[in-house]
């Protein structure tokens, strides 16, 4: 037994007793350093239901020791099991798992008396908490290394055919740039070298024992735990020069059934991808909420109301059901209409409210978004115009002054969509709906403004490489887009088929509810005379083109109901719209649409 490491301790779940063990210098069969569980350590009497399937090797080791009575009921701790001989395990995680009866990260679970995790005692390891990684191996020079090598041999590899021998774990990224440039030369393009440096640095320096590693093969996601340091070997075919031992779980997970946020991250096209932002979702695969809470009992100290990160990440996104009170506040004729709009948003996550001016499109979009998102903090509004561009909307280089030198330089600046997407994707926010309201969405060149984001509006489970920053980006599942569109301006009223395929369209027209009776309901709520509603109905009945009928919001302002206000509004706001509509047709606007003519028709 090696004495270079201190004794480590492991607290069993639900306030259970404490086990003890020590890390050994020699390696196990899978390349990890061995770990010995000391005689007298307690063990949990049962296991969680998913344990035999997810971690079959640890489950079998536990059962073998129970069958041989090395682990048997304890007299010291009634109701618990106890270890009666030292048990040598292939890794710290396996040692923890046979005691707690579920999957465990032994590099973090085993701690010194002072509370320091075992990982702090490993040399040449990237500091900080454990991370999660995707390493691609299903098509390496035409071979599926996952099925052929990784799963059978319990390892993960990375091709580095031209990289010189003797590159140490923990090598800096700057040093790797030099090595890749010297060793690959003209054998790789500039972009290939950039990707190679990133992948090698992650595999050699950032990845460490205890990290989660994933790969995809045959439509399944396989998950494992890195159990040892990297080794460099000479590979005849150059497909697997760098190797790390991995304890792969017993079964894969169907890719199509994975959470959308996880699918987004897995779609990033690099050989090595950092999956840490969705690590909690990976940890929850194949386990119920009850199992996750049970496994985290040490962290939450047996508090059944406590939540693990995996449970929090799993919490479903919900849009609240519109209420009768909301319908009354918005003066909508029927709460069923609001529920249909909510369902359309839930189905498509993009929606456009369209209709003539004055139909309350922007007001309704804002109020509905605030209700569904839980407050104005989750809502951002932008207005499109003909000169609006991708750089304004998402990201681009903009002139900015340095606060210290006062010099102006072009710097990469996030636009409103990028800002809201970053807010929506933060941990703790992913189950909260966020809304981007785009006013006058059809006034801009949409293909120019959205750029590659047009693809993401339709394929929410994918990611794309961004034009300016080069980041891999996906729209968060909890980000909803609501646009408003004015149909009266014929030059902008039409939108292309790509836009119509990506958005649900809801009409707000004076000819149909909830718009047709809105003014009358508002006047009744304000206890005012109903004549303006009768005049508006009479006016719209004389306008043949539905896109030029007048919306009620023109007559829902306080100024309309001061002395002479109705006449002023009619003369300066409503009639000019109709003059423009009938320009060149020789129509007598005052005689056809004036207040006197309409009042005469009503009497």
Notes on the structure:
It is a single chain. The protein contains 25 helices and 24 strands. With 603 residues, the protein is α+β, with helices and mostly antiparallel strands. Mean pLDDT is 89; it is low at 300-305.
Query: Helix tally?
Result: 25
Residues in helices, as a percent range = 25-40%
- Shape designation: elongated
Summarize the biggest pleated sheet: 8 strands, mixed
What structural class do you assign from the helix and strand content?
Answer: alpha+beta
* Head-to-tail CA distance between termini: 105 Å
User: Uncertain runs with pLDDT below 50, 5 residues or more?
Assistant: 300-305
Summarize the SSE layout with pairings:
Layout lengths: L6 E5 L6 E10 L5 E5 L4 E2 L7 H4 L1 H12 L3 E3 L7 E3 L3 E3 L2 H9 L5 H4 L22 E4 L9 H9 L1 E4 L14 H12 L5 H17 L5 E6 L2 E7 L4 E2 L9 E7 L4 E2 L5 H7 L5 E3 L4 H5 L5 H7 L1 H4 L8 H6 L9 H7 L4 H14 L1 E6 L5 H13 L5 E5 L6 H4 L1 E7 L6 E7 L1 H9 L9 E6 L6 H5 L2 H6 L5 E2 L6 E2 L5 E8 L10 H6 L1 E4 L10 H8 L5 H11 L23 H17 L7 H5 L1 H8 L1
Parallel strand pairs: 8-10, 16-23, 16-24, 17-20, 20-23
Antiparallel strand pairs: 1-2, 2-3, 3-7, 4-6, 5-6, 8-15, 9-13, 10-11, 11-13, 11-14, 12-13, 18-19, 21-22
Helix pairs in contact: 2-3, 6-7, 22-25
